[in-house]
């Protein structure tokens, strides 16, 4: 199995490449072959998946089998019910190349210098490290967490563990949660854009505004909480720190992101492809072109390949989750059970604020028992479409994004909280308790903005 797990990237890539090709070919026989390949792809991935994802996968498969039989669907058509989430897997597979080009350009190192420059107290360090984490997360996503947490843990190693853990937990996880709200490379944003039919450019200013409002609230919150603590880094800061050089690197990153967004929107408008698929197709050629412009092609080639291969070989959790979810949601659509699940939402149709809060608390409650936000949204996007005629789909979309990302800093079994728990050697439930007030605040801001957009 170790030998197989080291070569999974070949199998995964083959299946996903066939799927993307068939988006343009639209061949029914090829779609059946892809669905057939998805079945061994799912079962092979079970071996390397975490227990939590195995349980989720088994629950979705069991429920899907029950509904498949109830609907009286022919077994021979089973492969057609396995492919609806393939675009999400393709998206996650190609994403590491963007991470690779940022690292090849050494943008992460330059920006990380912000956290190493001297400040007089932890309140000021909180604002600086939150801002730094925010920028890093916006461009390299999950890879920013160990990078930012590693620097802070070293610099705060001479402080009491409880204070250090509280500081690192709050500043990095909260910045992570708000930074992704507007990123086109965040899967929850991509899912929401396609599910609601509202363009990314329409969402962008409102998601960015929500992100900045919540970031400002947390910066003020953190500054007031930690300013009474003096700060002397355990490791000497670099002697030569040039704020202008760091500012230039940040400007370059945002300029590159602006070009990337322009390409995604332009290509999407011309081709009519879904947002998720458009981003997937643009990432690799954009990253290659950017590496040539920076004259970092050789470095990018090495870093990108190693990062991509490692991440793709480690995708078992998401393969199990997404393929089992595809089978579940596709089977659900063939039964009357979907109408039953929709009833609570339709019953509150005259009270849109209740619906928005219901979506928010559904995310939070499900995250507490280990259900990944993608699994939750996978069900919600099947349930909510009838409400689009009554409630502005953009209002629902705002809460779908903010509600999901609010769990990134408080979901006890989520990957970000688990990673932070391992890095800081603290109980994940303690991390949840520390960040729960922020998660509720974040969700409330998202709901208010969604309500104002009605």
UniProtKB/TrEMBL annotation:
<feature type="transmembrane region" description="Helical">
    <location>
        <begin position="396"/>
        <end position="416"/>
    </location>
</feature>
<feature type="transmembrane region" description="Helical">
    <location>
        <begin position="55"/>
        <end position="73"/>
    </location>
</feature>
<keyword id="KW-1133">Transmembrane helix</keyword>
<keyword id="KW-0472">Membrane</keyword>
<keyword id="KW-0812">Transmembrane</keyword>
<feature type="transmembrane region" description="Helical">
    <location>
        <begin position="436"/>
        <end position="453"/>
    </location>
</feature>
<feature type="transmembrane region" description="Helical">
    <location>
        <begin position="80"/>
        <end position="98"/>
    </location>
</feature>
<feature type="transmembrane region" description="Helical">
    <location>
        <begin position="6"/>
        <end position="25"/>
    </location>
</feature>
<feature type="transmembrane region" description="Helical">
    <location>
        <begin position="273"/>
        <end position="293"/>
    </location>
</feature>
<feature type="transmembrane region" description="Helical">
    <location>
        <begin position="246"/>
        <end position="267"/>
    </location>
</feature>
<feature type="transmembrane region" description="Helical">
    <location>
        <begin position="32"/>
        <end position="49"/>
    </location>
</feature>
<protein>
    <recommendedName>
        <fullName>Na+/H+ antiporter NhaD</fullName>
    </recommendedName>
</protein>
<feature type="transmembrane region" description="Helical">
    <location>
        <begin position="353"/>
        <end position="384"/>
    </location>
</feature>
<feature type="transmembrane region" description="Helical">
    <location>
        <begin position="203"/>
        <end position="226"/>
    </location>
</feature>
<feature type="transmembrane region" description="Helical">
    <location>
        <begin position="314"/>
        <end position="333"/>
    </location>
</feature>
<feature type="transmembrane region" description="Helical">
    <location>
        <begin position="173"/>
        <end position="191"/>
    </location>
</feature>
<feature type="transmembrane region" description="Helical">
    <location>
        <begin position="131"/>
        <end position="153"/>
    </location>
</feature>
